[in-house]
Amino acid sequence: MQSLAALFPADDYTLIAFIVLLPLLGAVVNGVFGKRLGREAVTLMGLGVILISFVLSVITFLLLRDAQGEEGEHAARLFWHGWDWINISIQHGGTTKLGVNLSVDALSGTMALVVTGVGFLIHLYSSKYMEDDPGFYRFFAYLNLFIFAMLVLILGDNLPVLFVGWEGVGLCSYLLIGFWFQDEKNAAAGKKAFITNRIGDFGLLCAMGLLVYYTGSLDWRGMDSGSSNLLQPVAIWPLGHHFPFFDHLGSVGTFLNTKVYVSAATLVGLALFLGCAGKSAQLPLYVWLPDAMAGPTPVSALIHAATMVTAGVYLVCRMSAVFVLSPAAMFVVALIGALTAFFAATIAFAQNDIKKVLAYSTVSQLGYMFLGVGVGAFTAGFFHVLTHAFFKACLFLGAGSVIHAMHERIHDTDASQDMRNMGGLRKYMPYTFATFAVSWAAIVGFPGSSGFFSKDEILLKAFTSTIASPTAGGVMNTPEGEVKLFLWPSWGGSVLYALGLLTAVFTAFYMSRLFFGIFFGEFRGWKIVKGFKAHYDDHQHHHEAGPLEGPKPHESPWQMWIPLAVLAVFAAFAGFWNASVLHIELFDHWLEPVFHAASDHVKPIEGAENFMMPFVGLAVAAFVVGVGAAYWVYVLQKGEPARKVAEALPGLHHLVADKWRVDELYDEVVIGSVDSLAEISVAGDKWVVDGIIARFTSAVVAGVGTVLRFFQTGVVHVYSAFMVVGLAWLGWLLITPKAEAKTVSDAAAGSFSVNAAPGLGYSYRWDANGDGQWDTEDFGDKTEVNFKLDVEKSRKVRLEVKNAFGRTNTAEFVLERPRPDKSGGGVIDVEAQPDGTLRGVPRNGQGAQEVKP
Amino acid sequence: MLGSVVEHYVAVASILFTLGAIGFLVRRNSLVQLMCIELMLNAVNLALVAFNRQHSADMDGQMFAFFIIAVAAAEAAVGLAIVLAFYRLRSSVFSDEADKLKH
Q: Residues A785, A799: contact at Cβ < 8 Å?
């Protein structure tokens, strides 16, 4: 370790670049050459780079642990500077330099372990799951690219680098959701995810702008140290300080023009959270995640359960020093998290598609994480990210294993994922069953499992933790006097806890429903026939031919159940890393340096320790009630009570089964308004652009063309005639002299001169004195005449030019000296003189004066 | 003395040029038209050489004349090729039958 630490010093930690770039290498090789490399080489490349990345992440983690000490005494950070990127001018005339920098500390080091570790297991799983897919190489290229983007996201040292990764994972998510893009539904789901995320990205971009404006920095350290500047007031209403229109509305107008102040920290926090809500599928932007299940199941496990969707939680943890400055933003985070957890759990009750159930469960668990970080329990929230990554990835992969087995005889995507076609699989798929059971125990909060500890901690903190006012007395000084800041409400803890606990019961219930539905009871997929031989052509015909027959559902190969087993072990035991009930707080100490600045603002309520044991009891009760109810309903009564409830309340049942019709609402409101806007644009395009601009232009061109077509007779003779006539005209022009001259006048001095334009073989005669007679009867080579005039006098100068053919031409020039303007000091035009000086010329043409250039 | 000689040459060149132009316009036989073009080119050559005689300090006029001779040779080759191609198409060398562009 010492030698490694010497080889890779903390301020030039090159290893981090390898962690990030290896998956990119895999993506490029697989993407560009994958088709020719063949399946084995693609597998080797795709898995190899992630495995090396994982090993390097482990080394990094160990180095970090060494540097940080057993109890987390020192804040350790390994840093690597890639290259300079952007210079941004900031307030007070400075600039802040943004580099392509990577850094790793306790938080990102843990996250990197999860991404590469779980990522590798899922890669291994995919090598079998996607075996028969023609897009095998494409899949691994995307998957590697995703790992690369995710590592950029978590290892970036400033927000713009994080943003690159943030968009990168969004892109990979889009590509992988729509991986089977031949099916319109999948492509639409990909687009939905991408577009919904754009709304969140808008928030993140706004937050970046605000942060660089107020803190003068965008890297983690700079933002932490500059975060005190975020406590200044920002007037968010009225826009542009004052609406003149409202002045005419009397007292209502005065009220509407009242300035509204919030602290900059609140603005930044809310904008950041908009980004997090998009990426992490929180209300109201959660709608894309359930649809994202259109992608292959390993994608759902990796991207839409374990890693990418937790990026929002990671960002809140990363920006914790900013968030804690605004109790308002924190409360919004916590409340949205709790509401999302509850809301998604209700939808999961009525879903039959096993991936959909898991998707809503993911949304719900993400809500828990935000509830945790929102009340200032950053460690608890992030710990749930970790345990959730294990058990939810395991659940998804288990579901994939089940779907893989169902595909033996059921080839329709929806039917193969429908739990009504499953049941009793524990006999046929022992490994899948065992691992699924372990992670099911974790998510429903079986005492001692990882999910139990992490969820329990969040629920406890939801009740006991509050965010202290960032200023003394909870007021902020604004130009309009003191404004009261939003402070953590006294009822907050109870509401958040109630929602969280209720969700825990719901989670236990619907996850048990899923678990029992898949693995218990009778197998409902097809009739199991001993020694069944699949007919070659039955892909098309088995629907009509009576009850479907088939062999015993098969267990998945080792490439698929080994990852399941590893993840299940972690799902079972990872909780002991931070079991505060048992007074094990390793993870707390590990992350302490990261959340050090933020933890000063988090205040537990009085007597918080006393709640710990009763709350553990309540959490266990939630588990028992939820699982017990599900066991009674779905195993003992074979689902009869659920059917009765659905029949008694058909309206509610349909509403829940249709996911509260939120998608339909968005269709009407958001997509409908965009559609109308598009229709208006189409009308504008049709009538204004096409009708006026395009048609009019083409009519002009067509008209001119009609006239010109007259001359295009198509007869060579006529063309040659035109040519000769043109030539003759040109010749005529050449033998006609041009009488042209330039007059130069200086009105102030009264001197004028006339310069005749030169020409080949020209000779000139002048009438310079204006007496109507030529000065000399003969033509000469005098090209210029000069004379002076008195004030208000004018003169007519004539010039006659003769060329070598004896043809002449005459021109007249009238020159006048105006009266000087007595007022003086008028507007002065400056004109450049031929000799390079500048001359000021008053508008009225008198009193020319030199201007020094 | 010399000046009046140049004027004579120029006068001859103008007449030749005008003859060429008129011939080019009124004759329908494209071979004759080509010859008319040659006539015009050579009229210009004559004028150039005559002017060069007057301004004999440099040889611009003669140089131009040589260029025109070279261009005229190329023009004759291309022109005859066009006439040949046209004859194959229409079995005729009359230029008023060259109306394929429009008809």
A: no
Taking the Cβ of residue B96 and every Cβ of chain A, the question of whether any pair is shorter than 8 Å is answered with: yes
On whether residue B63 sits in a domain, the answer given is: yes
- Measured between CB atoms, which of B25, B28, B102 is closest to A713? B102
Beta bridge partners of A153: none
Look up the ipTM and state it. 0.83
pLDDT in tens, A228-266: 888 888 888 777 667 777 777 777 777 777 888 888 899
- Chain A interface includes B88 (CB < 8 A): no
In a domain, B31, yes or no: yes
Among all residues of chain B, which has the CA nearest to that of A710? Answer: B102
pLDDT digits (tens, 9 = 90+) for A742-770: 888 887 778 888 888 888 788 888 888 77
Domain count, chain B: 1
* Assigned domain for B102 exists: no
Alpha-carbon distance A716 to nearest alpha carbon in chain B (angstroms): 6
- A799-825: pLDDT as tens digits: 889 887 788 888 888 888 887 765 544
Mutate to test the interface with A, among B17, B99, B100, B103 (most CBs of A within 10 A): B99
**B25 vs A contacts (CB less than 8 Å):** 717, 720-721, 724
Quote the minimal CA–CA distance from B66 to chain A in Å: 22
User: What confidence tens digit (pLDDT) does each residue in A201-235 have?
Assistant: 999 999 999 999 888 888 888 888 888 888 888 88
Identify which of A149, A178, A141 has the alpha carbon closest to the alpha carbon of residue A31.
A141
Return the closest-CA partner of residue A435 out of A572, A631, A624, A307: A572
Rounded Cα gap, residues A603 and A460, in angstroms = 14
Query: Does B27 score more than 70 pLDDT?
Result: yes
The total number of residues shown for chain B amounts to: 103
Q: What residues of B are in contact with residue A724 (Cβ under 8 Å)?
A: 21, 24-25
Give pTM, 2 decimals.
0.74
Q: Give the residue on B whose Cα is nearest the Cα of A805.
A: B7
Long-range interactions of A566-569: CB distance < 8 A, separation 24+: A566/A121, A567/A118, A567/A121, A567/A390, A567/A391, A567/A393, A567/A394, A567/A397, A567/A435, A567/A439, A568/A394, A568/A434, A568/A435, A568/A438, A568/A439, A569/A438
User: How close A718 comes to chain B (CA, Å)?
Assistant: 9
pLDDT band at A359 (very low <50, low <70, confident <90, very high): very high
How many Cβ contacts (< 8 angstroms) between chains A and B? 31
Q: Which residues of B touch A717 (CB under 8 A)?
A: 25, 28, 95-96
Could you give phi then psi for residue B15, rounded to 5 degrees? -60, -45
Distance CA A714, CA A727 (A): 20
Which domain range does residue B84 map to? 2-96
Q: Which residues contact A807 (CB under 8 A, 6 or more apart)?
A: A735, A736, A737
Q: Is residue B103 assigned to a domain?
A: no
Tell me if B33 and A720 make a contact (CB, 8 A cut-off).
Answer: yes
Nearest partner of A53 among A126, A152, A136, A127, judged by Cα: A152
Q: Indicate yes or no: CB of A715 within 8 angstroms of CB of B96.
A: yes
Least confident of A80-94, A238-252, A546-560, A614-628: A238-252
Put simply, whether B25 touches A (Cβ < 8 Å) is: yes
Cβ-proximal residues to A227 (8 Å cutoff; 6+ apart), any chain: A215, A265, A321, A322, A325, A597
CATH number, domain of B72, equals: 1.10.287.3510
Tell me if B100 and A714 make a contact (CB, 8 A cut-off): yes
SS3 call for A18: helix
> With 80 as the cut, is the pLDDT of residue A779 above it?
yes
When mean pLDDT is compared over A51-60, A226-235, A255-264, A831-840, the highest value belongs to A51-60
Contacts of A712 in chain B (CB under 8 A): 101-102
- φ and ψ of A353, to 5 deg: -70, 120
**CB contacts, 8 Å: B96 with chain A:** 715-717
